[in-house]
Amino acid sequence: MSTSSLGASLRRLPLRAALACAAMLPLGLAHAAWPADKPLRLIVPFGAGSSPDQVARVVGERAGSLLDQTIVVENRPGASGNIGTNLIAKADPDGYTFGVSITGPMVNNTVLFDDLPYDPFTDIAPLTLGVHQPNVLVVPASSDIKTIDDLLKALKDNPDKFNFPSPGAGTVSHLAVELMLKQLGSSAVHVPYPSSPAALTSVISGDTQFAALPPIAVMPMVRDGRLRALAVTSSERSPLLPEIPTLAEVGVPGIEGSAWIGFVISSKVPADIQAKLADALVQALKDPGVVEKLANSHMQAVGNTPAEFRAYMDDELKRWGPLIRDLGITNNKN
Fold it and tell me: Rounded to an integer, what is the distance from CA 67 to the centroid of its chain?
């Protein structure tokens, strides 16, 4: 062997030794540097100012400080949340891109759409459920309907005489009412609108007679006297709205109409990174300052485990999937 060849062989030895040592490291240690000196990207599949956007910014700011790294929120709305959720699913699995999503893209759209570009049950991993927002059943303050019992009796006695709005066919605001009507053995005419504010305007103007909408949309108008709150679409009273009864209390059990928002990531991201990010998000959701900010928008902070979040989404599919099929709703009718 020549002198130059021997020198090259000797120079290669440290690199080979280092690679051999790296191959023997446990998986968790291989990602010990995450997050390195690189911002994290938090995708929101809806527009700026939306509830998912608010949750992303409030929780993301605190989680970023816990991780000692900047989290940059990126709004990618469109196609009922499918565009942004697909970006989360297909992102580079290095752990620097994650996102928030909701019932539609993560559950209902698997039934509403024939060809989603992602599979939320295989391409996306749950990190933690961020917030619950049980829908609030409301009527105009001028309505003769004073209580939830009044509304249920009126719906039973007058099938198809009432109209109700929602921010779109197949949304929780739509399906929670349909499930209530099914349990009552009654019916009402659904009127889809492009947004919660538009649906709310229809109730106030009298074009529709009642609605089940997120508390962030309706409670300011309940407080100022334009709307009357009758019940929440949840099995237990909301700690943020303790004065409002549940449907279960008046004999309509099994209605879990929460406009929830959760944190998710590509399932291809290494498990140790997923766990570290999930832990930071849960810590952020338990932070008193974060809890207060979310509560000010009528959002109840949760912060559970990935397994608990996955189980909840499975329950949601069992709850809404059959109803969507029974109603014959598809994405072509949205």
Answer: 23
- In terms of average pLDDT, the best of 26-35, 127-136, 229-238 is 127-136
Q: Over 50: is that where the pLDDT of 23 sits? A: no
Domain segments of the chain as ranges: 34-132+260-333, 136-250
CA distance 184 to 179: 9
pLDDT at 8: 41
pLDDT at 317 over 60: yes
SS percent in the chain: helix, strand, coil, step 5: 50, 15, 35
Would you say 222 and 229 are in contact if contact means Cβ atoms under 8 Å apart? Answer: yes
Count of residues making up the chain: 334
Joined together, the tokens standing for residue 72 give 């940059």
The second-level CATH assignment, the architecture, of 34-132+260-333 is 3-Layer(aba) Sandwich (3.40)
Q: CA dist 324 to 159, 169, 182, 262, Å?
A: 20, 9, 12, 22
R_g of the chain, CA atoms, integer Å = 24
Let me know if the fold of 34-132+260-333 is the same as that of 136-250: yes
* Region 2-23 average pLDDT: 40
Q: How confident is the model at residue 334 (pLDDT cuts 50, 70, 90)?
A: very low
Residue 255 in contact with residue 234, Cβ under 8 Å? yes
Is CATH 3.40.50.1000 the right assignment for the domain spanning 136-250? no
3-state secondary structure of 225: coil
In angstroms, what CA-CA distances link 136 with 9, 133, 211, 247, 301?
73, 9, 8, 10, 17
CB 197 within 8 A of CB 217: yes
Buried b vs exposed e over 288-311: b needs ≥16 C-beta within 10 Å?
eebbebbeebbbbbbbbbbeebbe
